Task: inverse folding
């Protein structure tokens, strides 16, 4: 099969042979979109491999949905190029790009059965009826909907309707599937369940998926790589682990992990560490080596889950626990550091091991979990 732009081996899923994609699936180069004086997307560039799950992550107005809509063809870029496989689709109408699309609103036809909804893209393409029946049956089986073909959308739960919408995008085997916050209307438990199902189907079929969400946890669970966007710019395009543990900007550190920020100044560099003197407490903190000159003002960034409470004299700073909240498996604590009136230092520790309100504690951290940003980078 060459439906993904390359001839590749196949894998068997639910008894059905499926193509395994390799190579480049999609690339965008210097994509830009403005609305009057507002720059919605500013010179966005990326290359996405076949079989990769990529998420555009950002707050409202960051440019993630506009970027997706330009790739889909629903929004015309001011400049830049969009290539699917080796085909330039920048000027093509949406229906000529052969991309799958799953919306947050399921957009199922209420007068059609599940099977008819899933078959609709094949019917439009003039696929023979026997082939339509075969493909629809295979696709519903993959999504766990084999017994639902004769039902109407109103007879399905929200999660089942979303599976049907996914099947409709899968059935004609597009080279890339675009998903615009498809789980946003569902409750958390169902959303978590469908995240696992979508990721499982994507991996088993080797699908190339571009997914839009504002939910950081959802992005971390689903993605091979994440493009963190702000004000139309891609702040960082990287794996979930790199984004969380090695953010390149203070914004990424804060948006993806709600990092604590402490102002300080580089004191010295050793072979393994950069030592920082904190402005507020005067304490010394070791970070992994960052090759910053002595005297450089920095923001120290540490995720709440990487900080640990210890004896008052054993940490890089000391403070008083002002709040400790039990949230199931975790205790979230806020510590007022001695020596100033900066915001509370936030910790997340396993339940049963957490500090209690009013307790005096020291704070310690593994140097490998400390990121430093020169103050000139801003926030």
Result:
């Amino acid at each position: 099969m060459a439906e993904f732009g390359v001839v590749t081996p196949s894998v068997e899923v639910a008894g059905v042979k499926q193509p395994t994609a390799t190579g480049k699936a999609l690339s965008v180069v210097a994509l830009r979109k403005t609305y009057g004086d507002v720059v919605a997307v500013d010179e966005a560039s990326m290359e996405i491999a076949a079989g990769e799950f990529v998420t555009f992550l950002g707050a409202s107005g960051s440019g993630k949905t506009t970027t997706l809509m330009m790739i889909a063809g629903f929004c015309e870029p001011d400049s830049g190029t969009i290539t699917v496989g080796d085909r330039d689709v920048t000027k093509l109408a949406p229906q000529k790009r052969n991309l799958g699309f799953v919306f947050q609103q399921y957009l199922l036809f209420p007068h059609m059965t599940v099977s008819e909804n899933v078959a609709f893209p094949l019917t439009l393409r003039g696929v023979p009826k026997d082939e339509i029946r075969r493909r629809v049956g295979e696709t519903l089986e993959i999504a766990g909907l084999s017994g639902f073909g004769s039902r109407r959308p109103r007879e399905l739960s929200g999660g089942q309707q979303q599976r049907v919408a996914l099947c409709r995008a899968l059935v004609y085997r597009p080279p890339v599937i675009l998903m615009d916050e498809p789980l946003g209307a569902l409750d958390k438990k169902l959303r978590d369940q469908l995240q696992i199902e979508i990721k499982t189907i994507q991996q088993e079929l080797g699908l190339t998926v571009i997914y839009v969400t504002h939910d950081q946890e959802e992005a971390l669970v689903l993605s091979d790589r994440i493009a963190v966007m702000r004000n139309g710019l891609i702040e960082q395009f990287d794996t979930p682990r790199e984004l969380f543990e090695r953010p390149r900007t203070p914004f990424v550190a804060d948006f993806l992990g709600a990092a604590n920020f402490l102002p300080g100044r580089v004191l010295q560099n050793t072979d393994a560490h950069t030592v920082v003197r904190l402005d507020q407490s005067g304490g010394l903190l070791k970070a992994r080596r960052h090759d910053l000159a002595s005297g450089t003002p920095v923001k120290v960034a540490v995720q709440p889950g990487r900080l640990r409470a210890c004896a008052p004299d054993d940490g890089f700073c000391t403070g008083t626990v002002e709040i400790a909240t039990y949230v199931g498996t975790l205790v979230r604590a806020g510590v007022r550091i001695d020596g100033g009136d900066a915001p509370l230092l936030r910790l997340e520790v396993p339940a049963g091991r957490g500090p209690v309100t009013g307790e005096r504690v020291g704070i310690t951290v593994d140097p490998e979990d400390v990121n430093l940003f020169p103050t000139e980078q801003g926030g």
Summary: DSSP finds eight helices and 22 strands in the chain. Residues 1-21 have pLDDT under 50 and may be disordered. The longest helix spans residues 188-205.
